[in-house]
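The material for today's practical consists of a large collection of protein records. Getting from the letters to the tokens is the skill we practise here. To make this concrete, we reproduce a full record directly below:
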Amino acid sequence: MQVYIHVPFCESKCPYCAFGSSDDEFNKVSAYFKALCLDLNFQLKNQNVKEISTIFFGGGTPSAVNANFYDEIFSILAPLFTPKTEITFEANPNSANLAWLKHVKNLGANRISFGAQSFFEDKLKFLGRIHSREQIFKAVENAHAAGFKSINLDLIYDTKFDTKKRLLAEVESLKSLAITHLSAYSLTLEENTPFAGKKSYKKDSDTLAKFMIEQTQRAGFKQYEISNFGEICRHNFGYWQGKNYLGVGAFSVGFVDGTRYYAKNSIDAYITQPTHREREILSQSELAREHIFLGLRSIVGVDAVRLNEAQKKRANLLVENEKLLFKNGKFYNPNFLLSDEIALFIEG
């Protein structure tokens, strides 16, 4: 089983972020982590979990919380670990100091993901980040010192600041860091955020997206999903494969055997009812649609047996026109930037 644990506390709220998080409720951290432990114990027992393949601590900013709070969670999880369990923590360069990194590493974490977003100070300020370029380099250095071998950086591109020259400089900065993975996301102007509707904030350039992907791969990070490059993150890869996972924490979402589970979407409500879930049972057609969309945006591909006859016909037409590849019973998309358009065409 895969497990996602949501830590909704941030030092500051970024203006582009639509994830459930708060920068002014740190007085609730202790109560929240007690609720997390209740929720986690309940779900592991309820789903009869015998083994955990991956764990992902996301947020929010897990590194904004004192590392001691994770001790009890790991005491619950540790008996279910295997030697291959992938354990990832998201962290920010300014808050993940060496002591914090050593603590979570000693608990069992073996993968760290830093929200860098950019190596340019003006772009960092625009994105509401409170760390500097220098702190990114220091964070990666500290991660190595703490013993992490799998290290990811997040970058955001397609902002109003970006040009080919600047994106090339971003990639060049990556080369000087000993990291194993890059997540590069095109800026999204999410609803209900300060960036909503600010079209001038985004270039919306297919040319820049293609350039970013090409340069990232030239730097040695092989693309395996529309926004992900390098050493495969098994946790996220499981999402694209449609695997079961538990969602633990406020704002979290879980998926088990065709049913999606939604936790309470506020910190207070979650602390009061940590095990409460709203359920959404997905139909076979909805599951097939998700398989198509997720498979085409990654190297997972789409199983031909999951398509109806009309969809297979359209997929084969794309193969004939060299838009898709067909191998060992699966359709593969060689250009992830076209994934949504291709998925819509196949669906009909």
User: Anything to note?
Assistant: Residues 29-46 form the longest helix (18 residues). Residues 106 and 260 are 33 Å apart (CA to CA).
